Amino acid sequence: MDIKTLKIAVIGVGNLGNALVSGLIESGVPATNIYATRRNGDKLEEIKKLRVHAGTDNRFAVKQADVILLCVKPFNYQVVLDEIYDDIDPLRQLVVSVITGVSIETLAAKMPSGMAIIRAMPNTAADVKESLTCICHNGVEDYQVELTLKIFDALGTTIIIKEELMNSATVLGACGIAYVMRFIRAMVQGGIEIGFDAETAGNIVQHTVKGAATLLLERKTHPESEIDKVTTPKGCTIAGLNEMEHNGFSSALIKGLKASMTQIDH
Question: Has 40 been labeled as part of a binding site?
């Protein structure tokens, strides 16, 4: 099935939901085929500019959809599922959950019997079609997996993982956007301190980060092998790297990842 013919309900258009909607439209899904909802209607003004069907009626949105993307907050999903229970049709619809930390088994217990459910964890780079999305499933039909892959491949890159790794995928791929942004911000601040204005420093750092990621993706090399290419004996690069490590750079990052993981597990 061509995703451009799908009718998609995005339930809970917060930051991630908005990114998904924008990415789907950018990928060719007609705005008129998207039904976006949010509990607070006052916060729908921006998404309405995209000409999607935007409102607060989850039941109406679900009734129109072939695919239902659940993007609500973990603390609110039970209320939403109770609300839409009678409107979900296991015979014709697919539910894709991007709810952090909620298993397929838990979701299935709140939905009609036989409901096809897939979990996905994209990130906000879906807005510019550069998301890394991890998906998992538990016994759905092959065509439903392929359909989900088509949806998220249109928003970037998609990989299939085991469900027990979905929380880890959330930390590394979704929370990871924030970690990288903080790294970029720190680099820019350092650039200002050594003489650049903020705009120029930002431009240099953003392209440097993009270049570093592209090197690894295209050459499929290990980060250390690329580091070795720019570290010379008694050079400025190794001096900077060692100073960062003396101050706990790698350790702090790993501890941050583990702290996020602990928060999800609780």
Answer: no
Q: What's residue 3's pLDDT?
A: 86
62: annotated binding-site residue? no
Residues 147 and 220 in one domain: no
Question: 149 a known binding residue?
Answer: no
Spatial strand order in the sheet of 8-11: 53-55, 34-37, 8-11, 67-70, 94-97, 116-121, 131-137, 156-160
Q: Is 101 annotated as a binding residue?
A: no
Q: Residue 78 belongs to a domain with what CATH number?
A: 3.40.50.720
Question: What domain count does the chain have?
Answer: 2
Domain carrying residue 173 = 169-265
C-alpha 186/C-alpha 189 separation (Å) is: 5
**25 falls in which pLDDT band (50, 70, 90)?**
very high
Please indicate if the annotation marks 47 as binding a ligand.
Answer: no
Last residue of a domain, one of 108, 127, 161: 161
